[in-house]
Design a protein that fits this description.
about 425 residues, mainly alpha
């Protein structure tokens, strides 16, 4: 591939092909990660497993998904991005397929909790950050917005199809379809995702021709990950970003993503209706997160995060009232409002991380921040299930989630202004 395809202004840059392939990887990953929300009630009915037992497996999944992030980013630096993604996709496909044979709750915890949790940690937000920082100098916010939108949209958009498949043909047909989808992505990654721009004779989009190229790391991935954490942990901004992303994960993947369909069931709504509302959130998220990436290239990311967390908190506080209202637009309004803000927080968070720690270290540091996101998701997935079991409703869990979002809005104002 010639250098002209990557460097001259106005010409198509192969970076957008890398983004398209990564978009598909993150899309199927997100669809798989959303499946437990559909499986919760069928597993409870078929095997008699309690909501708490199922939620515990999902909490393990969410926690490992996040904790794998920095180590996956370090493995991409040491062993190669493409090789790491191929191994992760193969494990993901195998783990999901094997779950169709499970009959015991420990198998759910092993396959969906441990194996799927670890594999998705290498094929989600950390992968997006690694690809964006390798292929883009300009338009990073827009590129990350597109990838983040693929993650959240895939998680929500396929829910009606999965709910229909589960209802018509059983939950096993759904997981086998997802396993096949992950397997189909493997050759695309092998053929169309170069290791880095220099592998095909290009520079990153917007990078100067004389900019130095960072050499591949030769260190152990564990050392890379923990060295990045040691350096980042000395920064107050890291902990503020970590805490705010903890709340982001708790209020999206952990709570709404895991429990919303079951919550709708408490109000007499069918699983397909609940999944359709989540899918609507996914459609609005595709727009909202892409626009957030565009805004992140142009405006103060702290101000954007303040608005996003504040609006999300207000939407969650409104949710119990929307579920109780007979007004037919009450829930669609929540779906639209919440969907626009689902993960709009990711592009400005990555921008602040890149500006604070540099493009080379940013994916690994961002991986640790994503770990906070998923630890928050794990706490919310388990905590909401326990509150639902003890109180018989999700109302208190919803109010706690909304209050945490308002607290996060206040926290992000304490992040120092990014260096120019």
């Amino acid at each position: 591939m010639s250098r002209l395809q990557g460097g001259a202004p106005g010409r198509f840059h192969y970076a957008w092909v890398a983004i398209a392939v990564t978009f598909l990887v993150m899309l199927i990953t997100a669809a798989i990660r959303s499946a437990p929300g559909v499986m919760m009630v069928p597993l409870e009915s078929e095997f008699g497993w309690s909501r708490t037992a199922i939620s515990s497996a999902l909490a393990i999944n969410l926690a490992l998904f996040g904790l794998m992030g920095p180590f996956a980013a370090a493995a991409m630096l040491r062993f190669g991005l493409r090789r790491t993604v191929l191994v992760a996709l193969a494990l993901l496909s195998a783990g999901v397929a094997l779950s169709g044979l499970m009959t015991r709750s420990w198998q759910l915890q092993l396959l969906w909790g441990v194996l799927v949790g670890c594999a998705t940690g290498a094929t989600a937000m950390t992968l997006g950050a690694s690809v964006v920082n390798r292929w883009f100098v300009s338009h990073r916010g827009l590129a990350m917005g597109l990838l983040t939108a693929s993650s959240a949209t895939g998680q929500l958009l396929f829910l009606p199809l999965m709910a229909w498949l589960s209802g018509q043909h059983g939950w096993r047909s759904m997981v086998w379809l997802l396993a096949g989808g992950a397997a189909l992505i493997l050759p695309l990654v092998a053929w169309l995702l170069p290791e880095r721009p220099q592998s095909v004779g290009l520079r990153a989009l917007g990078e100067a021709e004389d900019a130095p190229v960072a050499p591949p790391s030769r260190h152990n991935p564990l050392r890379i990950a923990f060295d990045a954490l040691r350096v980042a942990s000395r920064s107050r901004d890291f902990w503020l970003l970590f805490a705010s992303f903890f709340v982001c994960g708790a209020s999206t993947n952990g709570y709404i993503g895991t429990h919303f369909i079951a919550m709708c069931g408490d109000y007499g709504l069918s699983p397909v209706r609940g999944a359709s509302l989540l899918a609507a959130m996914g459609v609005f998220d595709l727009f909202g997160t892409t626009v957030s990436g565009w805004l992140s290239d142009r405006f103060n990311p702290r101000a954007l995060l303040f608005v996003y967390y504040g609006l999300r908190g207000l939407a969650l506080i409104y949710l119990p009232y929307a579920l109780g209202l007979e007004y037919f637009l009450a829930l669609p309004l929540f779906a639209m409002f919440y969907g626009l803000d689902w993960v709009a927080t990711v592009p400005p968070t990555l921008k602040l991380t890149s500006e604070a720690f540099g493009s080379q270290q940013a994916p690994v540091v961002f991986g640790w921040i994503v770990a906070g996101h998923q630890l928050g998701a794990a706490c919310a997935a388990l905590g909401a299930g326990m509150l639902r079991n003890s109180l018989g409703s999700y109302t208190l869990a919803t109010m706690i989630s909304g209050a945490l979002c308002l607290a996060a809005a206040a926290l992000v104002w304490r992040i120092r202004a990014a260096a120019a």
